[in-house]
């Protein structure tokens, strides 16, 4: 038995239990009630097996079992234990196992809180688990590799980060959790019983939403502090596919609140619940099918699971659409919603609409590579600025409806004459829009947004009950916009954005103060919305007002930027060594010296350089020091070569053919030969330099290439896992001027406001989920 | 009641139009060398790097090189174009078999906004984890 087989066996046991529980739950749901407990027992066994399978994979990682392909591909024996654990979810195979295990455990939510839907919901839930299990059969993390390599390929250094350890589990709990309300709503449709699915689903959707936000924020924060390009969000398809379900979940939470209060929007909520789950699978398909590999920095390649994913989507779509279309119950329709613009429910509805439109647009653009590959030979993707040009107006509209939802009251009817005020408001808004188009560079979408913002606000100002509160809020927004103007913001779009977001935030302050600390859980919603406004400001400030300059720093020289003299003092080690640091000293105006340590080193695994920035945090901004390039290093006389590669150096053509294991250990130690071919002025030579273990560790022996030429070749490093070597050929490179560092120094204002606001939103979501789960247990 | 559907339809049509037009405006086409020279908006062109022409100027902040058409059957007669790039040189630039240049023609040559390097032995598959 290979070491992978216990894992495979546990997966098979899980399949057996998932099948058994699924069938038993189905039979029980169809009438044989007494079987229900058997179903539960089978399901609990499935949880045990899924957990055991995951534990086994952990064990394989911890014991460095490189005979398993997955363990070999994502770990090495020098990896700290923390990253050995995260190697579990470094590749696709492991993430499906993680997803399945999370999914198994989350089924307990249905069993505990599912009430009358438990039985049917478990039927659908078992089907979902079965699909995840089929994925695990097709791409198994337990597959044995042909031979047992002595060392693993290691974990991509980009992933060796605290946030990358916890980001994937959080994301996959969210993915797995989205199936729970789906199963519940399917059960409600089957049973034609819509009385309590909403009450059960609302807190679960709330937690899913929280986890999606937290996972995306962690991913963004990780990108910001390790990737070095200075941002945290790039509208990358991988980000978008978890962003869209999050946006829809926000819309759904509001739809559910409206249904709870007024009995309306039942069908919309059912569809949204189904949609979130389908979007999660579709997103998985989109990012893992290989379709996006030319467009996304971190999409996966197709490992052959496409067919399973497509059938997963199709089966779930057919089941949900089928049953939905055949249900014409009067009860399903829900109560008629009264569209009255002076009510809070209307503001919520309008906000939901904006969220749906935002989600739809991002989904459409993310899917374009997938769609256009059928339309043309060169599939195309939407650019970041396309997304931004759309997200900006949407954020302004979200701020608008946030403001209104806070100021308006449920069921209240306005006192103003709508027809008359709309006319005046329309005229004034038209004037305002014309003025902003005249004075600022504004595209059509933004002009429409400005018009909508103005006409809406002015209409409400005509109502004398609403006027004082609205004016009060607008005063805060105006103050914010003026402060931004003083600080140098000139773009009308950005000023309106800041003003609108601050107007929205300010309306929630009084209710937060009123409810904290006595009614903490009830303050949750106000807290969340207050922070959303600040979050928007943080996003705008840190992206639109980030500015930087590029410094070219020769070694031991300094240049100044943002009030610091920055000196480049060389490297802590070699550029070929992992975690090599760039030594910088920043001297402030007061003369105080601070060390900054960005990282810059070669990563054979990806054949690229790791460029990790140094971030100096201040209260109002971050100073972001990103090393872009180091030129003229003596080390660059080293060549990294992969098997079969040919390179030219100073008229010398170098080819690396393959390794040859000369001695496997024992008394003579380990030695490896590299078969190489050289060509110089028409003459060819085949040589085999040797890399051998000695008393001081591994070392290469210099070897003369041609009898009558001075060239010598020496192996500096062997990277067997990558099939690559590093060689040096002394004399081929003249020693030039000292090396120099190209450093991008930038200032990112408001970024801490963004992180802080996200933490507050998460905290608010936790509070409200806590309150709703509390209501659920007390009945 | 009717107003609801009319407003809904208007919103959906407006959004679809917006989405498609915004996309068409920012899509970056793949073009030939000849088309790239006359391009008015940002385009992408693929070619090989003439390593003899690679030059760093402006104190290493600017990279200038000649791009040649790798599709040409006779490499001596291949179409060539001067590329000016002010960004960061990709780490594996000197190993590139071909490079994708995204940018616009300028007065002194084609000004690249972005270089995407294709390498001979770039791992197919397992390396792009997340």
Short description:
The complex is a heterodimer of chains A (779) and B (130). Chain A is of the alpha+beta class.
Model description:
- The complex is a heterodimer of chains A (779) and B (130).
- With 779 residues, chain A is of the alpha+beta class.
- Chain A is 56% helix and 16% strand.
- Chain A has 21 helices and 20 strands.
- In chain A, strands 11, 12, 13, 14, 15 and 16 form a six-stranded antiparallel beta sheet that branches.
- In chain A, helix 5 runs antiparallel to helix 6 and helix 10 runs antiparallel to helix 11.
- The longest helix of chain A has 32 residues.
- The mean pLDDT of chain A is 87.
- By secondary structure, chain B is α/β, with parallel strands linked by helices.
- Chain B has two helices and six strands, in the order H-E-H-E-E-E-E-E.
- A five-stranded mixed β-barrel of chain B has the order 2-3-4-6-5.
- In chain B, a hairpin with a 4-residue loop joins strand 5 and strand 6.
- The longest helix of chain B has 25 residues.
- The radius of gyration of chain B is 20 Å and the shape is elongated.
- The N and C termini of chain B lie far apart (48 Å).
- Classes of the chains: A alpha+beta (779), B alpha/beta (130).
- The interface between A and B is large, with 54 and 36 residues.
């Amino acid at each position: 038995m290979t070491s992978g087989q216990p894992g495979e066996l546990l997966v098979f046991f899980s399949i057996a239990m998932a099948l058994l529980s699924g069938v038993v739950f189905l039979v029980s749901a169809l009438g044989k009630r007494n079987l229900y407990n058997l179903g539960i027992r089978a399901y609990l066994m499935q949880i045990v097996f899924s957990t055991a399978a995951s534990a086994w994979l952990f064990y394989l990682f911890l014991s460095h079992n490189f005979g398993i392909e997955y363990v070999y591909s994502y770990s090495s024996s020098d990896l700290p234990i923390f990253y050995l654990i995260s190697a579990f979810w470094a590749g696709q195979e492991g993430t499906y196992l993680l997803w399945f295990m999370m999914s198994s455990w989350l089924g307990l939510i249905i069993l505990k809180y599912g009430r009358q839907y438990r039985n049917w919901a478990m039927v659908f839930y078992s089907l979902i688990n079965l699909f995840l299990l089929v994925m695990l059969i097709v791409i198994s993390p337990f597959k044995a590799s042909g031979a047992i390599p002595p060392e693993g390929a290691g974990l991509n250094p980009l992933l060796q980060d605290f946030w990358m350890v916890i980001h994937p589990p959080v994301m996959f709990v969210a993915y797995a959790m989205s199936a729970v309300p789906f199963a519940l709503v399917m059960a409600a449709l089957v049973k034609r019983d819509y009385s309590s699915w909403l009450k059960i689903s609302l807190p679960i959707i709330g937690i899913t939403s929280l986890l999606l936000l937290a996972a995306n924020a962690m991913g963004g924060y990780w990108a910001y502090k390790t990737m070095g390009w200075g941002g945290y969000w790039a509208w990358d398809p991988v980000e978008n596919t978890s962003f869209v379900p999050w946006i829809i979940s926000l819309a759904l939470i509001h739809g559910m609140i409206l249904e709870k209060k007024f009995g309306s929007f039942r069908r919309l909520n059912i569809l949204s619940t189904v949609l979130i789950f389908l979007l999660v699978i579709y997103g998985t398909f989109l990012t893992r099918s290989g379709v996006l590999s030319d467009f996304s920095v971190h999409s996966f390649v197709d490992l052959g699971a496409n067919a399973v994913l497509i059938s997963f989507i199709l089966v779930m779509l057919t089941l949900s659409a089928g049953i939905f279309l055949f249900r014409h119950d009067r009860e399903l329709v829900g109560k008629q919603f009264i569209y009255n613009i002076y009510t809070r429910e209307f503001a919520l509805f309008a906000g939901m609409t904006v969220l749906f439109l935002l989600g739809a647009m991002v989904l459409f653009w993310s899917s374009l590579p997938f769609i256009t590959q059928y339309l043309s030979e060169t599939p195309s993707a939407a650019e970041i600025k396309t997304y931004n040009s759309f997200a900006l107006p949407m954020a302004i509209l979200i701020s608008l409806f946030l403001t209104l939802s806070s100021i308006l009251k449920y069921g209240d009817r306005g006192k103003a004459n709508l027809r008359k005020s709309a006319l005046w408001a329309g005229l004034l808004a038209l004037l305002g829009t014309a003025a902003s188009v005249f004075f600022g560079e504004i595209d059509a979408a933004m002009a429409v947004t400005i018009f909508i913002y103005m006409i809406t606000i002015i209409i409400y100002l005509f109502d004398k009950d609403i006027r004082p509160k609205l004016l009060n809020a607008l005063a805060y927004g105006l103050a914010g916009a003026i402060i931004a103007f003083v600080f140098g913001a000139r773009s009308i779009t950005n000023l309106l954005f800041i003003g609108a977001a601050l107007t929205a935030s300010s309306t929630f302050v009084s209710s937060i103060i009123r409810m904290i600390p006595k009614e903490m859980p009830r303050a949750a919603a106000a807290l969340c919305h207050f922070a959303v406004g600040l979050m928007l400001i943080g996003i705008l400030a840190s992206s639109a007002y980030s500015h930087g300059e590029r410094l070219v720093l020769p070694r031991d020289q300094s240049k100044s930027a943002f009030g610091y003299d920055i000196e480049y003092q060389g490297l802590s080690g070699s550029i070929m060594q992992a975690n090599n640091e760039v030594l910088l000293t920043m001297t402030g105006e007061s003369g105080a010296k601070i060390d900054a340590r960005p990282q810059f080193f070669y990563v054979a695994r990806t054949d690229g350089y790791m460029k990790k920035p140094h971030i100096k945090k201040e209260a109002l901004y971050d100073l972001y020091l990103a090393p872009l390039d180091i030129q003229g290093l003596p080390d660059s006389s080293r060549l990294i070569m992969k098997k079969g590669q040919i390179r030219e150096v100073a008229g010398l053509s170098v080819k690396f053919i393959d390794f040859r294991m000369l001695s496997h250990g024992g008394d003579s130690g380990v030695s490896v030969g590299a078969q190489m071919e050289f060509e110089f002025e028409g003459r060819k030579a085949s040589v085999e330099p040797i890399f051998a273990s000695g008393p001081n560790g591994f070392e290469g022996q210099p070897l003369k290439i041609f009898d009558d030429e001075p060239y010598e070749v020496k192996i500096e490093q062997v990277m067997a896992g990558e099939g690559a070597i590093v060689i040096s050929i002394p004399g081929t490179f003249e020693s030039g001027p000292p090396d120099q560092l190209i450093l991008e120094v930038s200032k990112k204002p408001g970024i801490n406001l963004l992180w802080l606001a996200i933490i507050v939103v998460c905290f608010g979501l936790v509070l409200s989920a806590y309150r709703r789960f509390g209501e659920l247990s007390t009945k | 009641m009717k107003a609801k559907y009319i407003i809904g339809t208007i919103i959906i049509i407006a959004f679809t139009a917006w989405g498609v037009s915004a996309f068409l405006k920012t899509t970056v086409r793949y073009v030939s060398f000849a088309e790239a020279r006359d391009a008015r908006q940002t385009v992408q062109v693929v070619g090989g790097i003439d390593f003899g022409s690679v030059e760093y100027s402006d104190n290493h902040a600017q990279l200038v090189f000649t791009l040649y058409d790798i599709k040409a059957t006779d490499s001596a007669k291949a179409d060539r174009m001067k590329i000016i790039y002010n960004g960061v040189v990709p780490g594996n630039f000197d190993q590139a078999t071909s490079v994708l240049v995204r940018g616009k023609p300028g007065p002194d040559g084609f000004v690249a906004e972005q270089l995407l390097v294709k390498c001979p032995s770039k791992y197919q598959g397992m390396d792009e984890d997340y």
